[in-house]
Write a structure and sequence with these properties.
2 domains, about 15% strand, Aspartate Aminotransferase, domain 2, Aspartate Aminotransferase, domain 1, three-stranded antiparallel β-sheet, alpha/beta, binds 4'-deoxy-4'-aminopyridoxal-5'-phosphate, single chain
Length: about 375
């Protein structure tokens, strides 16, 4: 047996570790921002039937262009954003991670640079590395907001081919104002990707970048069914952009990348959109409950528009993480000194989290 270092691995991948939250057993798993609510019974019944009929055709390749699914996604986006989105503007893949990878394959690559505002979703630099795209860290203020003027200046200097903005941001929960997104778009000659994985959890008044699509052919808004829809296991991510962007992605997508089972399941889930999204308000209520409970424990949080809360400050965040785990509560240490991230889930999960936090807070602040 030989080690990875003896293989002729690409030099930029040497010494790297694969992405992944620790999958440690815990009573309360509040570390990967999933929706803990069970899927509605009517959806489960319909899924059985839909997958059954799709299975009858498994000897055939799926619809390579996933037209029916993209049509359903366009209807959902139009209905919820108030902006008309047509199927030609929509593209879907196996999770938004694959969507992001296809964007980098088409618009990044050797000799090109991607820029994103760290701390943010750690897969953005990882997928950049995987596609041979150089990475530059964009600046955020100490309160994790983006200074639009400074960011635009940095973009003009670096001239990246791909700019990432995550709104609401992971791991901080911070939403990005549309004026900031407009300023970043105006500053770049590359594509601007707004990663809106958590947008359905945004507080009232926080608008989606979908409204900025008209007249901005290099703007891409990426979404997922993994979070608010509670379908992380389905692996269905999608984007909305100018139809020319969707045409460009055809050059790099693998033929038949979305299985017919995935397409059937996603369409069935979308037919139950209202029932699925009914849990969003309950999750938001738990998020706000966590935020409100922190000051009494001598702790604070970053304002969150997502289904998670970045909370602190801890003298030693890894030690606080372990102390919570010892009490059965698994949260995420995102590597930000003093901070930990917790997913907002059910009332019972919040109860368990706040009880454990109350026990450990005095020793770890
Ligand atoms: N974007 C952000 C900001 C995320 O946090 C995640 C998941 N953690 C993703 C994209 C990827 O989600 P998926 O591939 O499940 O759609």
């Amino acid at each position: 047996m030989s080690g990875i270092e003896e293989l002729p691995l690409r030099p930029e991948l040497r010494g790297r570790t694969p992405y992944g939250a620790p999958q440690v057993p815990a009573t309360h798993r509040l570390n990967t921002n999933e929706n803990p609510h069970p899927l509605p019974a009517e959806l489960l019944a319909d899924l059985g039937a839909a997958l059954g009929s799709a299975a009858l055709e498994l000897n055939r390749y799926p619809d390579r262009d996933a037209v029916a699914l993209r049509t359903d996604l366009a209807v959902y986006l139009s209905r919820t954003s108030g902006t008309q989105v047509v199927p030609e503007q929509v593209w879907a893949a196996n999770g938004s991670n694959e969507v992001l990878q296809q964007i980098l394959q088409a618009f990044g690559g050797a000799g090109r640079t991607a820029l994103g505002f760290t701390p943010s979703y750690s897969m953005h630099p990882i997928i950049s590395a995987g596609t041979g795209t150089a990475w530059v860290d964009g600046h955020r203020r100490a309160d994790f907001t983006i200074d639009a003027a400074a960011a635009a200046e940095q973009i003009r200097e670096v001239d990246p081919a791909v700019v990432f903005v995550t709104s609401p941001n992971n791991p901080t929960g911070t939403a990005v104002a549309l004026e900031t997104i407009e300023a970043l778009y105006a500053a770049t000659t590359g594509v601007l990707v707004v990663d809106e994985a958590y947008t359905e959890f945004a507080r009232t008044g926080t608008a989606s970048a979908l409204t900025l699509l008209p007249g901005r052919p290099r703007l891409i808004v990426s979404r997922t069914m993994s979070k608010a829809f509670g379908m992380a296991g389905l692996r269905l991510g999608y984007l909305a952009a100018d139809p020319a962007v969707v045409d460009a992605l055809q050059l790099v997508r693998l033929p038949y990348h979305l299985s017919s089972l995935t397409q059937a399941a996603a369409r069935t889930a979308l037919a139950h959109t209202d029932a699925l999204l009914a849990t969003v308000d309950a999750v938001k209520a738990q998020r706000d409950r966590i935020v409100d409970a922190l000051p009494a424990l001598g702790l604070t949080s970053v304002p969150s528009d997502a289904n998670f809360v970045l909370f602190g400050h801890f003298a030693d965040a890894p030690a606080a993480w372990q102390a919570l785990l010892d009490r059965g509560v698994l949260v995420r240490d995102v590597g930000l000194p003093g901070w930990l991230r917790v997913t907002a889930g059910t009332t019972a999960e919040t109860d368990a989290f706040l009880t454990a936090l109350g026990e450990i807070a005095p020793d770890h602040r």
